[in-house]
Amino acid sequence: MKRAISVGAALAAIGLFSAWAARAQPPAPEPGDGPRYSNGTDLIRPANYREWVFLSSSLGLTYEASGSASNRPPTFGNVFVNPSSYRSFMQTGKWPDKTIFVLEFRQSETAASINKNGRFQTTLAVVEAEVKDSRFPDGWAFFNFGSGPPGPAGVGVPPLSGDRAAPCVECHTQHTAVERTFVQFYPTLFEVAKRLGTVKPNYTDP
Amino acid sequence: MKRAISVGAALAAIGLFSAWAARAQPPAPEPGDGPRYSNGTDLIRPANYREWVFLSSSLGLTYEASGSASNRPPTFGNVFVNPSSYRSFMQTGKWPDKTIFVLEFRQSETAASINKNGRFQTTLAVVEAEVKDSRFPDGWAFFNFGSGPPGPAGVGVPPLSGDRAAPCVECHTQHTAVERTFVQFYPTLFEVAKRLGTVKPNYTDP
Questions:
Q1: Half-sphere exposure of A198 toward its Cβ, with a 13 Å CA cutoff?
Q2: Of A78, B35, B118, B128, which residue is 20 to 30 A from B141 by alpha carbon distance?
Q3: What are the contacts of A176-182 at 24+ separation with CB within 8 A?
Q4: DSSP 3-state helix, strand, coil percentages of chain A (rounded to 5)?
């Protein structure tokens, strides 16, 4: 009987400790919120990236040269990052291995509802991703999921390569404030990087 | 000894079950991610709203009449909602009691870094909030945290009232697609509301 009580007490203690631990700790990184692949390097489009941490958005911030896109309404670009990598960056100013950024472009509209001047977001235009992962030759890779709905479950798209990857690599090497990421466009993160000294030495404030 | 083994087995089983349960369940709603008050109805500015679920952003979508703000650069408006209410909405198309929206306005810049045409977000301009809470007479309240840094910890701001609240209430009653919220500007949520039939009967698509 005494033994039975001590078993019960042990279980109760474990339960109490678990409940306390769950409350006392900051929100734990979601298990497995990093990149997932098929065929080793084909990135599977994250199903829940809209619930990841939002870094910033822009309007009309295209890769195209001035004027070439002037006849189309500008698109919004929303950037999301997996939560565990976000928390790591806020403490270190650096991106851990297995960081995944999703860049979501959306069409914009104006003169609808109460809005007479500005622009707001509408339908999805295209989904892209940038990944930091030591499995890739130089540690980073870029992906384009296109404009359609997500593909078959569990099937990824291959990293951009050759001529399609070159402009990504060049721009993300020469013009980024922190590692290969445009942290200068993410105001809350840029402050962290400046405070922790992780802005590239050759980066000059715009 | 046999008893000791069964205690060990029980603990191991609990550990395995806990690990399984933690992996099998969707991310749990953060405990206490709803509104917090001082003095009963003064809303405390949420410290971590940037880690909440992003609903959408807009550029130049002001409350002001056409032309009155034309000499100033447009501001971005980012909308965040507490995660547990987001998950509830995605299942029901309705906002549960204790839902809190944070509307964050940020200055915009252009012609910096690689960006020659569009606009991107910079410094914080103002933080506002809208809350659904049965403690308020009509179930909703609006708050303005101003443009400065967060105030003293644990001290809230009172809900807007009288002439300051009237335009909020009027606009959020007459022009909103779902309850008192501009779900028509949150594309991923608008689809859910249309599918679940929670768009107001008198709302007409812009």
A1: 20
A2: A78
A3: A176/A200, A176/A203, A177/A203, A178/A93, A178/A94, A178/A95, A179/A94, A179/A95, A179/A132, A180/A130, A180/A132, A180/A140, A181/A95, A181/A101, A181/A130, A182/B113, A182/B114
A4: 30, 25, 45
pLDDT band at B66 (very low <50, low <70, confident <90, very high): low
> What is the interface pTM, i.e. ipTM, of the complex?
0.82
Among partner residues A61, A188, A206, which is closest to B50 by beta-carbon distance? A188
| Of the candidates A57, A52, A80, A59, the residue with the CA atom closest to the CA atom of residue B78 | A57
Mutate to test the interface with A, among B117, B181, B184 (most CBs of A within 10 A): B117
Q: Which neighbouring-strand residues pair with A59?
A: A76, B119
Q: How far is residue A201 CA from its own chain's centroid?
A: 24
* pTM greater than 0.90 (yes/no): no
CA-CA distances (angstroms) from residue A66 to B78, B121, B202?
27, 20, 43
**Does the beta carbon of B123 lie under 8 angstroms from any beta carbon of chain A?**
yes
pLDDT in tens, A164-199: 999 999 999 999 999 999 999 999 999 999 999 999
Name the helix (H) or strand (E) containing A78.
Answer: strand A76-81
Amino acid identity for residue A164 in this structure:
R
Closest B-chain CA to A60: B118
CA distance B192 to B194: 5
